[in-house]
Specification:
alpha+beta, two-stranded antiparallel ribbon, 7 strands, disordered N terminus
Length: 253
């Protein structure tokens, strides 16, 4: 009696050919695109390409990454002119005529090669009161926030933002007006505005109503189109505009 043997799937074959990669090299926005050639591989991500260049061709290439599985957002960069997570972007979907152009995120100070300074991005979250403000006197019991409450649903819709700055790099208003708080900071403000346990409501609305706040948004939707988490910062900002209007008119929330 012959023993049963299951067929063994063959290992994935190599993708023939090479990929032309142009990578921004330089410091503080002074530099140029440097050409590299990388062998094509099956299921190859943009981060795989950058790692191959750093390991085998240019050890001095600076870039950021941490988790490699789309959880941290640190590997974000401009890929053929659009901000993306490089670890979740497959070469097959974005390479144009076998070419990749990799640059640092827009709208942020440049440090070196593909690395940007995220300080202004996080500073704007502070300006938008982007942290939870608890009551001075703790409540006697835990606050019960029902899942079906409107505010809870509004907050949940934007709470998954991980601060990768892809939406910030995609935002044309930030490019035109560097003082603009940006979609991530305003999305965070919206989630906290809808948390009835938070005590910074009026102060937060005053902060985001100033020059560079939510009313500066042109609602073009670039942030929503680019968000790797499929969030909708455009809708969050629209909600803030309504909330600011009600606040200025003295209407209840």
């Amino acid at each position: 009696m012959n023993a049963r043997t299951d067929p063994i799937e063959p290992a994935p074959s190599r993708v023939s050919g090479s990929l032309k990669v142009r990578v921004w090299r330089g410091r503080h926005s002074e530099g140029s695109l440097q050409n590299f050639s990388v062998e094509r591989q099956p299921a190859q991500s943009v981060l795989d390409v950058v790692t191959a260049i750093q390991r085998h061709q240019e050890p001095g290439l600076a870039y950021r990454f941490a988790c490699r599985v789309g959880m941290c957002g640190t590997c974000a960069m401009m890929v053929n002119g659009k901000p993306r997570w490089s670890c979740r972007t497959h070469v097959d979907k974005v390479a144009q005529n076998g070419t990749l152009v990799l640059e640092p995120l827009r709208n942020l100070p440049h440090i070196r090669d593909l690395v940007v300074d995220l300080t202004p991005f996080f500073d704007k979250q502070q300006r938008a009161f982007g942290r939870f403000h608890a009551a001075v006197t703790p409540p006697e019991d835990f606050a019960a926030v029902r899942p079906d409450e409107k505010g809870r649903r509004e907050a949940d819709a934007g709470i998954e933002c991980i601060g990768c700055a892809v939406c910030y790099a995609a935002c044309d208003v930030v490019a035109w007006s560097p003082d603009y708080l940006g979609p991530a900071a305003l999305n965070r403000a919206w989630t906290l505005h809808n948390d009835r346990r938070d005590e910074a409501g009026p102060a937060r609305l005053e902060a985001i109503a100033r020059t560079g706040g939510c009313t500066s948004c042109h609602s073009t939707g670039s942030c929503t189109d680019s968000c790797p988490k499929q969030l909708n910062p455009t809708a969050s900002i629209a909600g803030l505009k309504r909330a600011v209007t009600r606040h200025k008119l003295g209407w209840p929330r």
